[in-house]
Amino acid sequence: MDLRNIAIIAHVDHGKTTLVDQLLKQSGAFREGQAVAERAMDSNDIERERGITILAKCTSVEWQGTRINIVDTPGHADFGGEVERILSMVDGVVLLVDAAEGPMPQTKFVTSKALALGLRPIVVLNKVDKPDAEPDRALDEVFDMFAGLGANDEQLDFPHLYASGRAGWADDSLEGPREGLAALFDLIVAHVPAPAQIAEEAAPFRMLATTLSADPYLGRILTGRVESGRLKAGTTLKALSRDGTQIESFRVSKVLAFRGLAQQPIDEAVAGDIVTLSGMTKATVADTLCAPEVDTPLPAQPIDPPTITVTFGINDSPLAGREGSKVQSRVIRERLMKEAELNVAIKVADTPGGEAFEVSGRGELQMGVLIENMRREGFELSISRPRVVTRDEGGQKLEPVEEVTIDVDDDFTGTVIEKLTGPRRGELVEMKPAGSGKTRIVAHVPSRGLIGYHGEFLTDTRGTGVLNRVFHGWAPWKGAIPGRRAGVLISMEAGASVAYALWNLEERGRMFIGAQEPVYEGMIIGEHSRDNDLEVNPLKGKKLTNIRAAGKDDAVLLTPPVRMSLEQAIAYIDDDELVEVTPTAIRLRKRFLDPHERKRQARAAG
């Protein structure tokens, strides 16, 4: 059967997964009357809850005698490790752009990877039926983005369609019939080249592993595109690393291919098809799986390095072990090592004491998703404030810098620019009108300066601003960046919080807890209205007497506490604070010191 391999690229919430749903339905991948969940490609619970694609996934549809393998790529740069690996499997890309918002930073990040590989894009302007859609402006911005990314003449001469993924139609013009996605299917078949048959059928088998996963029955499984030759189950292969060193020799137990949303065993894998192999025990991503007579590995795409580091430790608070079942450092280490094995964008290293682990990744969102997955599995953890990863080149200290794109109301432009270019050491790159009373600001800001900024940004813009960030490059160290300005309210007692005490503390600042919640000494229960930390007693009840009061007692009406999400809590804490994460709670606390350290600090203080 004729083959086409494509990847779909889009920014977060531009309708990529919804469009894939319609491609599956209109190609006949589902039988009539079959119950299919909305956003069927988002199989992960967190993906469904947050509406973002985290894991790159493959599917396959048939259209008039042509099999089209479709790869759904993550839309957020924090999961870019998935994107870089997956683009080596495809021969073309479909760039999905919101007709109102235009191309956004995450679109730019993934598209730059695709253009560098020489892939020719198809542009689909989605959501053109929305009232604020401006497809012509969005199309011009896409062309400008391609030109800025160094696209060649062939890539700049791209075809485009107007579409509505939710309504399930795509047409060559805005005045089209709007009846289905046939125009998109036909354009993919006509524009995307068939997989190049690198060698004739008699050539030895070669495949580059691009994604790694585990199956409870098959064990370790690797997915990639067959570059040459043919393969049947039972064949013996070997795995070569990027430098040509042989890793292992193994017998292929299963050959699976994507058919709709499921994977099915096939008799034979042919050059150009995307397949999954099982039977190996050591081979991993970027390794070449090949016939025994092959000695040269296939070239693999380099992975961008991690930019932030977070320390994962055991939960050593007084409430440890009450809410989770996995609390030992040994169990935490095993889980983190398993994650690093399956996700090449994450690196794990042991600390000298062995009780904590340094986990490096792409950004706060990627760390947040990993921690959220672990707490759902029953883990209890203590998490430190994120720190940026630095490097030395020629004796100069370099730090990661991110490109920040902000759409904000004109009234708040001055405040945003002042915050980014002042204490956060950013550099303004571009500022232009974005229509309907909004301004688009592009700045290069050190990753350190963006830790904890998003909440402050939402406050400054009254919740109307939109901030997107993507890794830009490395730049010389820009000096000190001030941290959180406000102090915190720290509990000096252990027990259950009392409403009367919290009511009296409200004038001191914002509360993070409500009444009758467990607290302990050293736990952060609120934000101080001033810049110093303050120890308070949230257990102090009202003194009762048998003397009747002249007036009636004041009613205790508590202001609802501030409930932080996991990412907000990690970004909020200071260097001497930790986030305590359990399956049922997220708490903030001061870092507990061992007795020797407390004595040393006491002596130093006089």
Would you mind describing this structure in some detail?
- It is a single chain.
- This protein has 606 residues and is an alpha+beta fold.
- 22% of the residues lie in helices and 32% in strands.
- The protein folds into four domains: 2-191, Rossmann fold, CATH 3.40.50.300; 206-290, Elongation Factor Tu (Ef-tu), domain 3, CATH 2.40.30.10; 391-476, Alpha-Beta Plaits; 488-544 and 554-604, OB fold (Dihydrolipoamide Acetyltransferase, E2P), CATH 2.40.50.
- The strands form six sheets. Strands 18, 19, 20, 21, 22, 28, 30, 32, 33, 34 and 35 form an eleven-stranded mixed beta sheet that branches. Strands 12-11-17-8-9-16-13-14 form an eight-stranded antiparallel beta sheet.
- A hairpin with a 2-residue loop joins strand 13 and strand 14.
- Helix 9 packs across helix 14 (566-572).
- The N and C termini lie far apart (81 Å).
- Mean pLDDT is 82; it is low at 35-42.
